[in-house]
Amino acid sequence: MATTADIRNGLVIEYNDDLYSIVEFQHVKPGKGPAFIRTKLKSLKHGRVISNTFDSGARINIARVERRKYQYLFKDHSGYHFMNSETFDQTFIPEDLINAPAFLKEGQEVEILYHVDTETALTCELPTYVTLKITYTEPGMRGNTATNTLKNATVETGATVKIPLFIETGEIIKVDTRNGEYSERVKS
Q1: What value, to the nearest 5°, has the Cα angle with vertex 85 and ends 84 and 88?
Q2: What is the pTM (predicted TM-score) of this model?
Q3: CATH at 69
Q4: Domain that holds residue 144
Q5: Domain ends where: 79, 96, 125?
């Protein structure tokens, strides 16, 4: 059994019959009264973020979780299929557990968070940035880098991304998977 002294960002705890990841925490020592820990917890089942306060020194249950590297294979009616990079075991994950399914391309490495006690997948996380080829976009104007105007582009996974006017079809760009926004052009 752990205490609130063990709290850190990314720690997964059992709270109210659910698994929560600690998004952020703050140790507060008011001038009057006992110290406490103010936290933001993200539910791994529902994705909701809640605020909670723990008394300093209170007991918490740390959930045993593991991050495992998998490679994306394909998608069909049963979900997204992945292969473990070390054991070559295959598993499928439903779309609601993946943080950015629109940017998955075949052969891409991802991390799947597993609850060790029940051997169930909790989340599937893509890398922060992925490189994708633009399959279609309207023709732009060369040299138009002064304005901050954006246009739509379709990437190789079928997702639509807003890009600057000077980028053309066939170029490779880097996309932020956290918010789905264009980050930079990749020089080939």
Answers
A1: 55
A2: 0.78
A3: 2.40.50.140
A4: 129-186
A5: 125
Mark which of 86, 105, 125 sits at the end of a domain.
125
The per-residue DSSP string of 128-174 comes to: SEEEEEEEEE----TT--SS--EEEEEETTS-EEEEETT--TT-EEE
> pLDDT tens digit string along 159-181?
999 998 888 889 999 999 988 89
Cα torsion angle, 83, 84, 90, 92, sign: negative
Closest alpha carbon to 112 in 144, 160, 136, 80:
80
* Cβ-based burial of 71 (10 A; exposed 0-12, middle 13-18, buried ≥19): middle
Give dist(CA 174, CA 150) in Å, integer: 15
Helix, strand, coil % over all residues of the chain, rounded to 5: 5, 55, 40
**Single-letter amino acid code for the residue at 183:** S
